[in-house]
Design a protein that fits this description.
Blueprint: E1 2-3, H1 11-15, E2 21-25, H2 28-37, E3 42-46, E4 59-64, H3 70-78, E5 83-89, H4 92-99
């Protein structure tokens, strides 16, 4: 399951694996464009991830999480019971805070 598929920066390369993918995109225009560019094993849904129930089967979650929704999306994902791996890109400040890494002077 991919969160915030957008224009397919992650979706398209992942689709080359041939594995089933559910890509979730809130913007209807972007979802429509992505749907036209992906093979049949990719399902593109026009949904808000925060209102989308998690799959009830084991799955992997990937996505580039928008800063303003990071906490809400992390809570939504972590509240699910069937995901086994998550590869999420977040803003550096969020990652540092969550990992409790001290800031270094540049």
């Amino acid at each position: 399951m991919e969160i915030g598929a957008g224009d397919g920066a992650l979706t398209l390369p992942m689709s080359r694996s041939g594995r089933p993918i559910t890509a979730i995109e809130v913007d209807p225009k972007r979802a429509r464009r992505l749907r036209q560019r992906t093979p049949s094993h990719v399902t593109v849904l026009t949904h808000d991830i925060l209102r989308t129930p998690a799959p009830t089967h084991p799955h992997v979650v990937v996505g580039n999480i928008p800063f303003h929704l990071t906490t809400a999306i992390l809570r939504h994902i972590l509240g699910g019971t069937h995901w086994h791996t998550a590869a999420l890109l977040v803003q550096w400040e969020v990652a540092r805070r969550r990992a409790r890494v001290a800031a270094r002077a540049c």
